[in-house]
Specification:
mainly beta; eight-stranded mixed beta sheet; three-stranded antiparallel beta sheet; 13 strands
């Protein structure tokens, strides 16, 4: 195989692949067994091809591939920016997303981008708007503070285990 891959957030760059490679990192995983239930924070999860994360309610899996929201990701930089705009904490578990990613450039994560995370292969499908429940979850002004910072949805092309600390790589 190719000994080098491009890192997400560093388009076109060639970096060595291995345990010491840098790049965007998965820093949080949250699962909801069903709609309306509290988020369960875990250290690892299994991504099921065509479905999403095992243990999470598998959302909208019957829609066209480009509309799928099997897994949702939000960026740590956007969470921090929302905290600054609101002047109060924005805990990851209240963002209604599955994965929190640090060290990524959100502009690079566009529709069709393929990402290796752990042993899973993911593909970005659509940007995600902040949930209309953000003001209820985080207080007045939260939805406005998160506008343009809702993250992206991905579909699972190849199943596999993802763990907190795993690095994302473009493939």
């Amino acid at each position: 195989g190719d000994a080098h891959r491009r890192r997400v957030g560093d388009p076109g760059a060639r970096v060595a692949v291995g345990p010491m490679s840098g790049g965007p990192r998965l820093c949080w995983i949250g699962l909801r067994p069903s709609r309306g239930t509290p988020v369960r924070v875990v250290q690892s999860a299994f991504a099921v091809a065509g479905r999403g994360l095992d243990g999470d309610h598998q959302r909208q899996s019957g829609l066209r591939p480009w509309r799928r929201r099997e897994i949702t990701l939000v960026f740590e930089a956007d969470r921090i920016a929302a905290e600054a705009a609101l002047g109060r904490p924005v805990p990851a578990e209240r963002l209604r997303r599955n994965l929190l990613v640090e060290g990524a450039c959100p502009a690079v994560w566009t529709r069709g981008t393929r990402l290796r995370l752990g042993s899973a292969l993911l593909q970005v499908t659509v940007p995600v708007a902040p949930c209309r429940r953000m003001d209820d979850a985080l207080g007045p002004g939260a939805q406005a503070a998160l506008k343009g910072r809702g993250g992206v949805a991905v579909r699972v092309l190849e199943g596999g285990t993802v763990c907190v600390g795993d690095r994302f790589e473009l493939v």
